[in-house]
User: Fold this.
Amino acid sequence: MNMELSRRGFLKAAGVGVAGTTLGAFGFSELEAAQAAAVRPFKLTNTMETRNTCPYCSVACGIIMYSKGDLRKGETAEIVHIEGDADHPTNRGTLCPKGAALKDFVKAETRLKYPMIRKPGSDRFERVSWDQALDRIARLLKDDRDANFIATNQAGVPVNRWTTVGFLAASATTNETAWLTYKVVRSTGIVAFDNQARV
Amino acid sequence: MEPSPHTATSNPPVSAATSNLTERDLVRRSASTVPPPARQLEPVAKLIDVSKCIGCKACQSACVEWNDTNPAVETNTGIYENPHDLTPDMFTLMRFTEWDNPQTGNLEWLIRKDGCMHCEDPGCLKACPAPGAIVQYSNGIVDFIHENCIGCGYCIKGCPFNIPRISKVDHTAYKCTLCSDRVAVGQGPACAKACPTHAISFGTKEDMKKLASSRIEDLKSRGYENAGLYDPPGVGGTHVMYVLHHNDQPEIYSGLPKDPKVSPVVNAWKGMTKYIGFAAMGLAAAAGVLHSALTGPNRVTREDEEKAEDLVKEKA
Amino acid sequence: MATTSIEKEDAIHPGKPVVVDRYNLGARVNHWITAISLILLALSGLAFFHPSLFFLTGLFGGGQEARAFHPWIGVLLFFSFAGLFIRFWRANLPERSDREWLAHANDVIAGNEEKLPEAGRYNPIQKFNFWAMSLLIIALIVTGLAIWDQYFYEWTTIPQKRVAVLLHSLAAVALICIWIVHVYAVIWARGTLRAMTRGSVTGGWAWRHHRRWLKELAERHRFKGPAAPAE
Amino acid sequence: MTNSWTDIRNTDLVVIMGGNAAEAHPCGFKWVTEAKANRGAKLIVVDPRYTRSASVSDFYAPIRQGTDIAFLLGLINYCIQNDKIQWDYVKAFTNASYVVKEGFAYNDGLFTGYDEGKRDYDRSTWEYEIGPDGFAVVDESLQNPRCVWNLLKAHVATYTPEMVERICGTPKDKFLKVAEMISECSSPTKTMTSMYALGWTQHSKGSQNIRAMAMLQLLLGNIGVRGGGMNALRGHSNIQGLTDIGLMSNLIPGYLNIPVEREADFATYMSSRTFKPLRPNQTSYWQNYKKFFVSFQKVMWGDAATPQNDFAYQFLPKLDVPAYDVLRYFEMMHQGKVNGYFCQGFNPLLAFPNRQKITESLSRLKWLVTMDPLETETSRFWENHGEYNDVNPASIQTEVIQLPATCFAEDEGALVNSGRWLQWHWAGGSPPGEAKHDTWIMAQIHRRLRALYEKEGGAFPDPILNLTWNYRDPDEPSPEELAKEMNGYAVETLYDPADPTKVVTEKGKQVVNFSVLRDDGTTACACWIYSGCFNEAGNNMARRDNTDPDDTGAYPNWSFSWPLNRRILYNRASADLQGNPWDPSRKLIAWDGTKWSGYDVPDIAPNAKPDMVGPFIMNQEGVSRLFARGLMREGPFPVHYEPFEAPIANVVAPKIRGNPVARIFQSDVAQFATSEEFPYAATSYRLTEHFHYWTKHNRVNASLQPEFFVEISEQLAAEKGIAHGSWVRVWSKRGQVKAKAVVTKRIKPLICDGKPVHVVGIPLHWGFMGRARKGWGPNSLTPFVGDANIETPEYKAFLVNIEPTTAPATV
Assistant:
């Protein structure tokens, strides 16, 4: 779905045709049967490509993620390499030191894997199931909202706000996540709603 | 809009690609001789335009990711260089120099990407005693073949730029390969692709020289009258070249050598010493053989034994 | 007559033939450790010295192994040779008569030992070998450490390493040459080898090559039992 | 950004001030180097530090942090004094000729209407004089002493080069060199671009910093043109999107507002939002506000939003304060008025000022929920990490629920870049362990809460129970479904108002864009400015055609740019009053006698006559504002105010401390320091090797910049006996940090008002979790005060002290 793109056409389109010429000059057009190569085997051979966008700053560089396994076929996919997307008009394949190391963000040892709860006064997290965590959250929300919801102000005007619970949204989630978050949070009357834009 | 030519910007292939760098393309092989290559690949070069470099270390990052190295988390020692030096896990390193330009009185922050220069006349290869541990392709890439490396560190002594490093893990020498595996399938090196400002370009050496001259012209128009291309002839030219704003004093860029060449000491070691050594050892052996032939063995005679017996009798 | 050329273990076993103890067991073990180290060092070192000899690394299991063993053997050699040095440095101190001995170089080469002044425990050529070996081994260990990157990379600069590796190879060549002379001399002067195998030489050998030494031993009544066996 | 990253290639002069693009946005900065290499463009960097941006600049000028307004008004003054103004542009496209009401004045650093007790203004005099025709009075001759031009001229006259040097510490000759280079861009064929970021926003007067540059850009005629503009280099990948979608206390998606208490009903709410044009023939696009608002209500509450119930107007909360921004909310938390808090991909323990206060506040919560792909310091604020987080877990009674979320590589959807491009991306990897998409988590929270309300009833359940939730899989709405809601759809079949037989959009179909939205409840649209992103033509955000006719840098078929795929905002201003481009070599759009066309989607009605309709269609005047009317809390013109913690007193208004209208909480005032106690001017910033507090989890970036440090000048190091690479303690009135000292020539003492000012630079990437070495962030030191208009904390200018110390105890 994301690869039906014009990317191989980029060389023509963006005036980088010289690069093609340059490559030709290396002798790469010759495809004679070669002896065993001394160089390291090309490590992206037979990987899956997926277009994505760097999640760090707002230059929003195009990236290509190379994975073993294809999510679109329902397989488990492991990202093995990430590189700049040469077809992207902004970054043209380049990446900064953060973007160039994105694979190690995906595979960081400190990635979270399971829901955890830390009980009051405890010095550790304990693993819980998603159901336990989410039911607990729903209960906490419901009880607090019912107890502290402000339906009208002193003048009797409906104000329908809830000030004792706040929601701090992110800065790198997708628009779609942001919109769903907006819907869910706004519908409760939470007014302490903010995001990273402020800092 | 793009200055042309520059780094080959197409995305890497994922279908099986034929490697274009084969043993057949070797022009030099350490401690061995190779037959003349059947074809001459177009010489390639990486051009590092120091005047465009922002010292962001994207090249270091991309290099680590592409080459699957594992640099250590060190400390801060009061400078921006990290790791503090090239290591077997860091083939390239931004080196930072805060330089007060005596002519303008302005501070200049000179940031140079250090790494293998891929010399036309590679000192490492010359020094290497292990057959096939260091090779040079006809496009100019000097590559280390780890299966053949014995970890002796002679390449370190041979290199005029202080580049190779020996791994404490597998005891083989590491340095920038110019991403020979990428170049072999028509891609530019990982650092050149990543470089955000196109301070690193990759293409044929001829094209890179043209690109350099346009950059030098731009720099001259901005008042850098000594701007120039660093392609040192002392090592036969290099396949990694720099555009420097102050090409008259390359040493201000964290000690880039002004006129690098393979050290005469190394030349003596890998040259004359070998002949003298073999000659000396041969002469010594030959002298023995000759002497033996002329004089025969020096045997203890019966008379000598008797003399000794007499002496002992006398004294006992 | 100088007295320094006699070692503790030296003794004459009267008999027919006369047998003279020259090297005790410790000295011989020490010597052979040194000798074997030196041979291994030469083999591995020569493998790095010239590509045509690289195949010698096969003796060690491969290039990596040869590279890894060589410096350790060097350390062994150094300490082993140090043992020899401590044993024999006195006996190798130069003497006035050495000059006269050397003045008859032609006779040395021709094997006309009768025309030479009587030699002590070591003749000047042996002494030269001893001191040259000592100095070269010091040079080799110092330059060797300077290029032993696995442990001492930080200790020297690259220009120093370059000089070190050059000196190391030159010293090694010199050492090998001296070793050749040494080995040749042992072979040439028959009856010598047993000094380092059985530990003793015949009286005739001592009379012929180290007469002053023999005389001195006799003079001092360094006799031991009748015809002594090897041990 | 008014323009796009790729447009920077078209510029002649780049001014980086209030940012450090080379370090924080390296791949965007590429277009600066391209402009330099291909157009001979010049780069000016003005910064307290000689940054990596400065290292490739043509000219660098130092400045003391927090004095940008003085510098910028100095530049405006220089341009006015030297007649370096693009007059045709200024006269036609700005409010220079508008006459301001009698009574408006400026004295001693304050405008008319100041109430010291409220720390606020009565802004009624900050308005145009309205003529008998109901329109603003203008004097095109610019002779009227009360016209904006003359007021501006008088206002900036104080900021002479000498005054700039006195306040900013920028040597006069350097300031003049910058002024000379910038003023050249008043030519219609020379363009300057301004690239700024948090170096301007993170001040108690951040909005005014940006306004000052925007005014300068207007005077030079650089807004709406290729290679020009005001280009905010936003920090995070989708901070633009989250702002657009209005995840803020007081916003509705598309920059609409949450009602306040005095807007008791819909009619009252709309009465202040008519946006009647202030000049004849002007567009005043906000006149469509009601369409956007009603369409939003319809998307939220569907059939429950009817004309009879004012489209569920009362389902929205009403604010009793301007906003429950994070500073206010942490103050409330600190006072024990908050019970529960969610942090979705946010790390406030390191991101908000005065960390001690943040720790205390979080400790007073009953519960905290964090959702993040990574371990954050916030989710472990209760955990003892020795000196690095010196807390006693047993005394902290907050229940913490940590939820593992997916990261970008496992997620699908769109991010909005600085240039307003909505770029769709696809998932390529499987999430680790049981990590889940944020959409799944939010849906679960809603579904379970809704189920509880269905079962148990409770406080005003209507907005929850009626929330539109018609997703194919109610447990996990798909990104496409959500994107389609944002684009908007027809609730009923829409007919052309001009021809009722003609169907515009069938019922249930996606609307083509926001031009067809209605205020009668027949359309639904979550975020009107995005409308067009996912219409019946498909997902336009997924487009990846990188053709760029004539290499303008527009890339019109690459993804989707809001609004309406427009790449350069105000692009009508790129042409003169006849509709011809100011610079023919940089044509953007042009008038062909009947319509506008060109490389970009015109930012004006395609048939709007060039000599009649002004280019700034979102303003009621149709022109841009040199005089901001009552829209800024400090006043219609920027004024130099010192930071709340400043090394010198305000030279232009000595009695005023800080920004006179910035909100300060009583509990924080005692923690503001003076320069007697804390003599050194500190600033915080990012380094290129790291991204905020994320990449310290990453082995590669941790190796590239492993350890927390501070940067000081050689002079300060000598004065304090601090050795290169040694440990130092830096402390403010609110806390302390220990760091390695980087002693550098790149920071030099500045002479301000005759006194040397030493700058201490504090980068922000270390904490107590992750792969890099443990350290602190500058927020241990920074004051709890925000910008007067938008409450962005003042991270860029505060006072500290420094001394040598020993290494922290290892944990």
Summary: Chain A is about 25% helix and 20% strand. Chain A touches chain B through 57 residues (CB under 8 Å). The beta strands of chain A are 48-53, 62-68, 78-84, 116-118, 126-127, 150-152, 158-168, 190-194.
